[in-house]
Task: structure prediction
Amino acid sequence: MRRTLIAGNWKMNGSFSANRALLTDIIAGLPDGNSIETLVCAPAPYLAQCAEVLGKTPVKWGAQDVSAHIKGAFTGEVSATMLADCQCKYVIVGHSERRAYHAESNELVAQKVVQALSEKLTPVVCVGETLEQREGGATNAIVGAQLQVVLDVLSAEQVSEIVLAYEPVWAIGTGKTATPQMAQDVHAFLRGQLSVKSAEAANTVRILYGGSMKPENAKELLAMADIDGGLIGGAALKAADFLAIISAC
Ligand code: PGA
Result:
């Protein structure tokens, strides 16, 4: 049984005061006996604040990116060791905004996954196709290639340690959501690909859906057999929406 994971991706939003208010409201509003794993991925300067505010709560925190390098002369980069030092448990890797605006290749994403795992951080590996690619019938080829480069650098045991996120680029921040069946089809395809590497990983790896997930559509999406949670951008910035998605699970 895969434990549902609801992860907020704050992107480049927040401030010390706004974060404190948001996190306080999330903690206060978590349903009693909540069995859903809850995560917020904050900008790096706020990870220590997350540790302070969330340390004694069930809500986990993570980062939005990690360096592919261990340490040294890489101005502006943040290493996996530093994220672990901030008590992160997770890090988003290969988000489509990193791929698009920072030219992150599949190979670089794979190196970042390796770095994250080396510090026992769970990488949330994002894959997704553009609208043009979907309309050209290339969805499975694109997400399959993005995943395969990561699988190629990991052992079967390591694959069991990752979380995957299917985020169609055309659905991110646009208000357009993949239908539950469209998302399920891609999730099932990705799970099939995992099974070639490791039957155990195919069974245990959680595959999140991301792209305009909100309270109104979360329930239907999360009801699909291979959708194990959500990676939520815009709706993660409002405690009421984030909590409503958790309650929809
Ligand atoms: P969105 O973003 O929920 O605002 O579409 C999701 C993401 O980019 O992770």
In short: The beta strands are 5-9, 37-41, 60-63, 90-93, 122-127, 163-166, 207-210, 229-232.
